[in-house]
Amino acid sequence: MEYCANIKWKRAESERYIDNAYSRGHTWEFDGGACVPASSSPHIVPLPLSVAENVDPEEAFVASLSSCHMLFFLSIAAKRRFVVNQYDDKAMGVMEEDNTGRMSMTRVTLRPKVSFAGDRQPTRKDIELMHHQSHNQCFIANSVKTIVTTEIIL
């Protein structure tokens, strides 16, 4: 399997480039038709107000880990016959120097809060097991050196 994204950026003719005075705004285009406005993190390069609603690669990295984990969790819960009503994860990543001295997303903490419907309710142990299985099956988590932890919110 291959997955593709088309990342597009173009310098405006009026922009100064050599002295770093250029827009970091660009787009991510996906084969399903979605086009996401993107830019650098405002923690790295302050953004003009006109691009304040863009997604940056660091946020997308955290969202990718959270989304992958959630999709596996939903599948596992369904197979175990638990009905998930809502899944809300306030995930957070930490960018800092890694053990080699390079800037890296060293840790991502997932904080999923899941609500279930119906009479069949999972125990805390069931929920912990489903999150553990989700982490082990997540393709993205299996692909990175970042420490990914889950803090379950009940």
Would you give an account of this structure?
The protein is α+β, with helices and mostly antiparallel strands and 154 residues long. The protein has two domains: 1-55, no CATH class; 57-150, K homology (KH) domain (GMP Synthetase, Chain A, domain 3, 2-Layer Sandwich), CATH 3.30.300.20. It contains two helices and eight strands. A hairpin with a 4-residue loop joins β2 (26-30) and β3 (35-38). The chain starts with a strand and ends with a strand.
Describe the structure using short key phrases.
154 residues; alpha+beta; GMP Synthetase, Chain A, domain 3; 2 domains
Nutshell version of this structure?
The longest helix is centred in the middle third of the chain and has 23 residues, at 57-79.
Topology:
Elements: E1 5-8, E2 26-30, E3 35-38, H1 57-79, E4 83-89, E5 92-97, E6 103-110, E7 112-117, H2 124-137, E8 147-150
Helix pairs in contact: 1-2
Order of helices and strands: EEEHEEEEHE
Task: Assign the CATH class of the largest domain.
Answer: Alpha Beta
Task: Write down how many β-strands occur, each being a DSSP E stretch of 2 or more residues.
Answer: 8
**CATH homologous group name of the largest domain:** K homology (KH) domain
- The tally of helices reads 2
* Spatial strand sequence of the major β-sheet: 1-2-3
Percentage of residues assigned to helices: 10-25%
Q: How many strands, which pairing sense, and closed or not: the largest β-sheet?
A: 3 strands, antiparallel
Task: Indicate the mean pLDDT.
Answer: 91
Q: Give the second-level CATH assignment, the architecture of the largest domain.
A: 2-Layer Sandwich
How large a portion of the residues is in β-strands, by DSSP E? 25-35%
Gyration radius, rounded: 19 Å
Low-confidence stretches: none
Q: Remind me, CATH topology of the largest domain? A: GMP Synthetase, Chain A, domain 3
